[in-house]
Fold these 4 entries.
Entry 1:
Amino acid sequence: MDIKELPEATNFIEQFINEELAAGKFESRGNKILVRFPPEPNGYLHIGHVKALSINFGVKEKYGGELNLRMDDTNPAKEDYEYVNSIIEALDWLGYKYDRLLFASDYYDKLYEIAEKYIMEGNAYVCDLSAEQITATRGTLTEPGTPSPYRDRSVEENLKLFREMKAGLYPDGAKVLRAKIDMSSPNINMRDPVIYRIAHVNHYRTGDKWCIYPMYDFAHPLSDAIEGITHSLCSLEFENHRPLYDWVIEKAGFEKPVPRQIEFARLNITNTLMSKRYLKKLVDEGVVRGWDDPRMPTLMGLKNRGVPPEALKKFVTSVGVAKGYSVVNIAQLDSFIRDDLNETAERAMAVINPLKVVITNYSGEEELEVEKHPLHPEMGTRKVKFTGTLYIERDDFALVPPPKYKRLTVGGTVRLKGAYIIRCDKVHTDENGNAEWLECTYFPESKSGSGQECSVKAKGVVQWVDGKYGCDAEFRQYSPLLNDEQYPDQDYGERINAQSEKIFHGKAEPYVMQAADVAFQLIRTGYYKKCADADVLSEIVSLKDSFNK
């Protein structure tokens, strides 16, 4: 990059980068900016990750840099290729192109070598305290920690014990390798943190080669340094880990410039679970059908639901980059999805709660031309069959209409979208007085687009599905998985919305049911997508916009 033409900074991260470039920090590497996105392959990416992706890929594009997708796979008990593949698929769906795919496990030999260097230089020691004992002796925010009785072991003894750990001579939990820093540091993360633990667990990539594994706070900064990352952009919960991040790289002896960690506020959305641990629990407990359930905030769930990836990226951009904690209303996300689909989704008709209509003065059948999109006539028209029997939405008929009612009632008229005006002449009811089916009259001269004058007028327009050619369909409507109310000490399970999915059985145009994985605006109903493997129409977002723009 030519530092004489630095791009204008639009947030504090870009301001830091511009200052460093202007100061010549990266001249030795041709002013090349290199960032990374380092997910742990222990679950599926969720919408919160889109913010980190947006920031990192935004830096890559703005500065003509590069980005590594690195799987932070140092916890073998929870990681698997399923999650690796899901992460790659999610980035591909969003349209993010990384420069190289890497794995923290690629560096296990190098990380072990650095750990021995720490020991030889007096910066690490083998400790026999249990995890509970280490926690108990770490101290508090107001009291220093208590040094381990094993802290002053000799270099020779530490090397011997560490190599025996590597050789598998000890069971899980028997020993750990700890960094030797400062047990009285005001930052608890600096009080001799564990950097290696014993885990006799098969790793999905390295198999049984290793029985000791590096901890995140050790492996992550060193992976950044090994790759030559310039900026480690991460969420705000890692701010207190930054001194340790810098210490780990410094003691490893990497040449400058070394990576710089910069934190930003994570994305928080109302009614939305943003934790892979809890999302996995929903999957494991059968609350949802899987990681890609349309109710899930995972990227595969959002994809399966039919959410346009560009809408997600625009939403995250609108939230901005900041340091302060904030919560975004889920209605704002829905608004971006709705705006995108309003432009791109073809229109079609369906009825979720069907009421049968028989047109007594109509015989035969015909094929109507109906527009695909009122805002884009260039999309053309579709064919819709019309016979003497059809279905309308049950809510579009009232035995006792309220004031200013503009839909169908006995003696009243309504226009069938793209077809004719009909009048209800008679209603047939069941033993409870509910409408079972309607007898109606149609007016031939009222055909949409015919240009004929019709003496009968209708104030309302309703969607319909033909009785002979319409298809049976299952409609799934969604609301957030979480109720938004939260109280102290409340388990997330108490916030689960038991009504997050509602299922209806209705009718839809064949045009919709034949188009798998395509988003439609079902007129007056909502935006839906036909599922590929079933006669199911899955709601993407409702028509009603409650976000105040």
Note: The longest helix spans residues 47-62.
Entry 2:
Amino acid sequence: MTKPILITGTGVVSAIGCGKEQTLDALLNNRTGVGPLVYLKTEHKEFPVGEVKMSDYEMRKYLNINNDTITTRTALMGMIALDEALKEAKITSEMLPNVGFISGTTVGGMDMSEQFYLDYVNNDNHKEYIAVHDCGSCSEMTAKHFGKFAFITTLSTACSSAANAIILGANMIRRGEADIVVVGGSECITKFHLNGFNSLMILDTQWCRPFDATRAGLNLGEGAAYLVLESEESAKKRGVKAQAILSSYGNACDAFHQTASSPDGEGAFRAMKEALELADIQPDKIDYINAHGTGTPNNDLSESQAVKRLFGDNVPPMSSTKQFTGHTTSASGSIEAVFCILALQNGFLPVNLNWSQPMDDGIVPVHQAVKKELKHILCNAFGFGGNDSSLLISKDMRHETTRHETEGQESHVTGPEVSRPLFVLSAKQISVQQPLSEDWMTQPIEYQTPFNRSIDPSFKEYIPPIEARRMGKILKRAIATSKEAIKASGLESVDAIITGTGYGCIENTEFFLESLSKEGEQMLSPTYFMQSTHNTISSLVAIQTKNHGYNVTYAHKGISFDSALQDAVLQMRLGKINSALVGGHDELTPTFYQILKKGGMMGLDDEMCGESAVSVVLGSKSDNYLCKLVNFKMLHKPTMEQLKAVAADFKADHILTGISGNHKSDVAYLEECKELFSGAKLLKYKHLFGESFTSSGIGFYVAAQCLKAGRIPAHLFVNPQETIDNKPSNILIFNHSDGDNYSLTLLEA
């Protein structure tokens, strides 16, 4: 039994208000923020939306940000919500180096990319915005406004992103890796995803009506919310009170379809059930469910079935709040978690606006104002690909005396530490080298060109041709490497699928942007949109392998794979899972390569760039494995003294660096390695595989295969004179992204 996780600060901005005071007033008075489009410049004026009632200029003024500062609407909203959360929790800028920041977003800086895409392709205008397209950049801009955090990462699981950020932060506190973590998400409305949802024909031209017989689709919204999660010891030491308790949480994969939910709500059922079991709370103790409730025919029926499966004939009061704000997609999990906390504090049930007629075989939601004392609330957030998460938020009852009143205040989540070795059971790659092979160790393909695409195997044995026909290449590579890695691991299945990707399915994103920019907002392809979301990769792997386990995706620049690895290690150390498939997948089109080069992000100097798909299986025990994972650490903007302190726990004979041909980056690697790892032999791999957003995954694969083989090929040594007596006992993978985010991974033979 572990101590509770306290929520000591919250901040929110959405269509119903800037800050919690305005938000509470709207919820209590049933005032929607959904209305005609005002700020987004689009042809589709027929769709009501929940826009934040400020222009970008007004947000900048509110935040005292200069108009020349490069930023995005997603980041601006994030700053507003984060400011309120930090102030409530009494966290100052001086404290931030000991505080983590985990954010969820999917559109990232798409609001700028869709405006300037043709400039990116054809000229040098607005090229300064290229670097803020990705999800991780938005998280870093949000955080940078307040100071230097201890670590930063970004989750991108579509509409469950913020909820999954909350789960990661809670797990870090449970294991003792952090005392305070700020978690949540931010998402603005863009033409890209407005048109994407329209191409799927799930937008309503009227106000949305979740769980109503006449429901016809969703209204999009935007906003941001962050919660400050804190250990009980930390809050007591700082003298801050809990607004609520995060009692538990669950995440599962529906493993059914890229955009549709299963008829029986399998993923939703599993997520809610896990949350109840981990908190040791019986279903009849739940006082209210904040439903995902989008208003689409498929979602509402599926969620209704999941709830009835779990609660039987005793379904608690339940409502959707998306009629207030619109569906805020990636931010919805944290925005609605704040709504739940307000309901706990003020004793009311949020009303399911616009409901009038019961749907067949569905639930009847709360449709009239009700005052009620609440103790335990389930908050659901379900995303594309069947990524389903449920949070159990409880009133702070730690000072009550009876078991009945304190149930759920201490969770049965295993922890804080499970001491056991972690084994790398298998590792497979598709890249610019021979696919699904280790031939590169003896006969590497050498390239003289600065940009190269992957060498693909035949995908017929991994994916039925009728399904593969509409899949992007990155998806095929991910499925092939995943199936091969699981097969080689000796396991029938894995407990978790955790993926890192810097840009996701960028080829489909490019196709959709190209059509949007040149042909306008009519007749856009739903396939391109469906496959543009980052977690399409992880969800399709789950669908293909019929895996309902934990499933998340990280999208944070050059530490995307590292963040996925961190999550896997964390959950295995907690004892929550015994195995995990960790992936690192990125693709690079000729057009996008030129855009990134223009933005100064890739292909500089003698740097060779490429594509790669890596799938690694970690396990807690095995008779046959590649190597052991001994230690792992991530840091954000560390000083040299901080790096030295960490490096003392990562002693190794060989250091695998990210030297790539980018002179500035290479000099940094060499100087840091000289100071941190004096006497160790330096290795490189990007001259063979190329630079990519998840190239650290290739580095992990290379190190694991070398340890298994018991030798390091001569062509990996930075200094050719050091190749004598090169049988490795361990290899340290030393990675940094933009000189800001570092990871150290120690593997042992």
Note: The mean pLDDT is 94.
Entry 3:
Amino acid sequence: MKRIMSNVISLFVVVIVLFLIIPLPTFMLDFLLIVNIGLSILILMITMNIAEPLEFSIFPSLLLVTTLFRLGLNVSTTRWILSNGGNAGTVIKAFGELITSGNVVIGVVIFLIIVLVQFIVITKGAERVSEVAARFTLDAMPGKQMAIDADLSSGLINEQEAKVRRYKIQKEADFYGAMDGATKIVKGDAIMSLLITIINFVGGVIIGMVSGGGDFNTVLNTYSIATIGDGLVSQLPALMISTATGMIVTRAVSDGSLNTDVIKQFKAQPRAIIVTGVILLFLAAIPNTPHLALLAGGAVLIVAGYVIGRQMKPQTAMELAAAESAAAPTPEEAAPSEQDYFKDINNVYSLLAVEPIEMEFGYSLIPMVDESHGGKLISRVVIFRRQFAQDMGFVIPSIRMHDAASLGTNQYVIRIKGEEVARGEILVDYYLALEPAHPLGEVDGIETIEPAYGIPSRWILPENKEIAEIYGYSVIDPLSVMLTHLSETIKKHVHELLTRAETMQLVENLKHTAPELVEETVPNVVSYANLEKILRNLLREGVSIKDLGTIIETAADAMGQGANVDSATEQVRAALSRTITHRFCENGQLRVVTLDAEVEKKIIASITRNEQGVFLAIGPDLMQQIISQLAEHMKKFNELSQSPILLVSQVIRGYFSRMISQFYPNITVLAFNEISNDVQIQSLGNITLEAPAPARAERKAMVSS
């Protein structure tokens, strides 16, 4: 029984198909027609009470099943109408007599109006909305993915939450793509219902006249009522399903159910309600207008607007009081003068200190930092520091934040060890809209470049936020823009922040879990200086050092065999293959660009060693070929919204990575032994040796001859 219940929908679909072949008795047909109407009402109610479309993600499939169900019933009713003298059950007869009310012409006109409303207004509108929603969702996917990455980088969400949001974006794309196709089913259903109605009427009249069912008026009246009843029974559910289709694809910018949103947003505008009531009263003063109806309507709206406005006043007063309380200045202690402070020579030495990370702000940005005025930057940085420590195994040092009179009012500067490494400018009262590849429309705003990723963007007013999202823009608040820029800058320079003292602190922390390993290896086999260099090499290329035990154990084995720091780093990377794979792999797949065997041979032959160390001495021709081909392959990664990855052999990985980073700092170079065996590698291109220009010209001449 349990197995049958789990497959009840599959069995139902099979039964629906059988409706097209097996004739149904009229009492069962009456019951199924009522079920069809009830099911369509249920679907419409569900679509009106959901907050977002994915809460009813089965709707596209359900739309196909209900359409097939309705067409199966249409075929069954048509069989009875044509074979039983227009008698197809009590439901169809009741609906036919209800709509005709004794006058067939009126019934036909009303039925045609219902059909045209269903076909031209509801179905066509839902189809257009679905097309636009599907296109907008697909175009907005890269921007939404980037916004998730920004939130993950800034520490607002963890990796699990990021996966959930990425999955939701994928589900949205699949849902709206399915809805775009499902609306074509609705349109076909409307056309088919109209054709079946015509067939019932024309075929019934012909059969009635041929079989001697009475005079022409009697036949016409009988089959008109049956046809109109059958068409109405099928068109009413179709109309409700079409309405539900349009309803579900227009729920993109809603926060709750349709009932909640309508009541909430109408109640937020009491003045508009009162003005509408006053206008109706003025219309009532015009001669020959329905005075009583206009007066009643105007009075009701004015009273309703007044009552709603009275209810909103206490809430507005509380919000204003809370805002004034938060903005009230707090007394501060008087600071000593600068001249008196530096009279003490010991205080002068404080000027020699260099902050690991420093952030300076213009005057307008101070409220975003000052916690006494509701600033949230510091709390967001704390969240980012915690998330970064969990992901990378490194604790970011404290960030010194202060204002700077030399900056513009909307500018900020990020410094690493006293030197400026990044600068940006944000508008506090605006939102930043990241421009998609194919926007559906243009939003008014101030054109700019997003500081962290260099994406073309524009600063827009808050009232344009919703329309920008509809057009496919990814909208980010100013605080998130600045925090994302800070987090990406720290990730880029994190290896510079690792000091000897921090290395020793990490080792001390490891003693709590692996005291024997630390006692045996550090600093006896691996010195603190060499361990610091290895950790810096890993952080420079975005590899987590959280598994410090494996790093120290592998480095000790390598250096015990006489390996240098670079060789030890490569062996450590191989030991961290799972960590590296998890860092750069997406959904079990790794998209890469590879090097041709001949290219690798030439690179290996160019490895040179001197007293300064080992480096690559690649000729300019080979270098130019590699750089130019790599530039072409980089475009493929940009289209996929993925960081570029170059896959090479372990022998040249470290040297080639340092060389190529001078031209493409954002590229990741991995070795084959750093990839887990369960990962599928997909090559997007291969860098090969190109023949010299004279040789190419000679080959071209031979081909021409």
Note: The first strand starts at residue 357 and ends at 361.
Entry 4:
Amino acid sequence: MKLKFITLFCLLLNVFAFAQKKSKADNYFFEYAYNDAIKQYNAEKIKKPLTNQQYLNLADSYLKIREYKKASEIYADIYEKDSTLSSAYISKLLIAFNKLENQKDKVQYYLTQAKDRLPKELIENSDLNSEILANNKNIELGAYIFNCTINSAQADFSPAFYEDQIMFTSGRPKGKKEIYKPSGEAYLDIYSGKIQLDGDVTVPKVFSKIPTSNFHKATPFYIAQLDNVIYMLSNADGEDLLFDKNGKNTLAIGAVNDRGEFRYLLRDLSTSFYYPFYDGETNKLYFAADFEYGYGGTDIYYVYTNNGQIMSAPVNLGPRINTPANEIAPYIFEDDLYFSSDIFYGFGGMDVYVSSIQLDDSLSIPVNLGDSINSDKDDFGFIIKNNSRDGGLLGYFSSNRSGGKGNDDIYGFKLKQKPGLKTIIIKGEITNANSGKALSNFNLWLLDENGSELRVTSTDVNGEFEFEIPYKHTYTIKASKDGYGIYNKSFSVSKEEAERAQLVNIQLASINDVVEEKYNKDVLKINKLYFDKKSSVITAKIATELDKVAVIVSSFPNMKLKIESHTTSKGSNTYNLALSQNRSEAIKSYLLSKGVSVNSIVETVGYGETQLLNQCKNGVYCLEFLHNQNERSVISVLNYDELVK
């Protein structure tokens, strides 16, 4: 098979390692010679069975050279045998099947199979993006995209704004500069080009403000507030590369000021740092790194700074952004975080995603920018700004898509509005209305205006929940749990309001909070209903208690009630029977007027003086308070046993 070219971009996603390995195949693999590694692994397994890790290396090699069928077969075989397979390799399994024609059902199969072995955020991200991409017209950007003049036959990538120019990374030859063996190109260097009126970038030249080096310099970013350029470079001491104890050389992030003074910002001989971005509003320095404690390959982190000085340990953006795959190239524009990932639910290798930064600094589900920007190859290094010339937006990104001039090329684009499908975040918590205690494992459904199910979730251990969906003007939330009431409420939200997360805090009572045993029956917990003497008129105090009943029934729509009223023995039996019946009917009428369904009230009875609670019957002298004990109206719950389950 013809040797396929491995892009410099892909190389930068891997560790720069040359440690001594146990086999020749392993050496090839860790030197990125994937075709040679495949041949050698297949030769070695004839003589001796490969280890699990070597089989995974073989699958990774097939994945790198786009032999997705062979990669998927190995990943799937190991998945079935190894119940401890990491989420990073499960993600690669999904990527491989996602690339194959007529194998999309396998993606869903393994997603379902591995649900408990993958982060819940990954499942949610996958569900939303699959829904979006299935209806790609929702994210049609109408973008005008063009290949920039500055591109060469080598790798050109990672554009960054610099005054009226673009800085970028290139592997183009420059004099007698040493060749970097894994790529066959020159060591990476930083160049600049002039932005023309039409957005094209021309006149490429070496960016002279960065100190010279014999090794990699790449992925620059200009901090206008500090007049500093930050960039990635090989860990070196003068003309000598630095290696850790395992023989690994990594990439650091350094800065050069307006006086040409250089200093390292992020440096570790065992960890590589990539794609720095500085947010002037928060003084956070963002970057990608391959720390061992991350979520997968490269993750996106940030550190706090003070005038460019690092003031904190790295903070991982968390599983909403970072996945078992590789995330790189963070860029923030107008409270939106753009970055690239090669996670399985995209179009190709690397795709560009956007996530909205909320007021509480939480991040929305990253949304794929669609095929106006993304292709079936690698698309990354996305930057964007307002275009003062035409009132729209101007931006650039890198891609190795078909039709380019060389390896990775820089593409420009023009848009009329910000890219990315507008979503809406609905989140909150469910607590016990009586105790205020958080209610975990509470089921919630999000419905559209027609009652169709959009999402299903449940509260976490803190009683919290969150939905995120493509923007809807109207939606309904339902929540229920055995032994508790049901919440069912509709909301409307404008697109402007949808910029902020919609907070919905729900209080629900348990059946035992609203029902008690009294008079040898299950009755609603309300204060005693005091009618005026010889009256069946609903007083203000009675109405207050019945309003509580209406709320309870709205939470327990399946509740079946029996309304019964009793009188004292004073007066005739006939009169008392009629009075009690009238009182029960009055209670029913009031409840119906408050929205209680007629189906909820099974029976309405007046017992008169036939069910006295004491000996105060006709002809027996009793004190007034003893007579009053017999005058009562109660609302019984006939199906308590059913509701409590």
Note: Residues 1-21 have pLDDT under 50 and may be disordered.
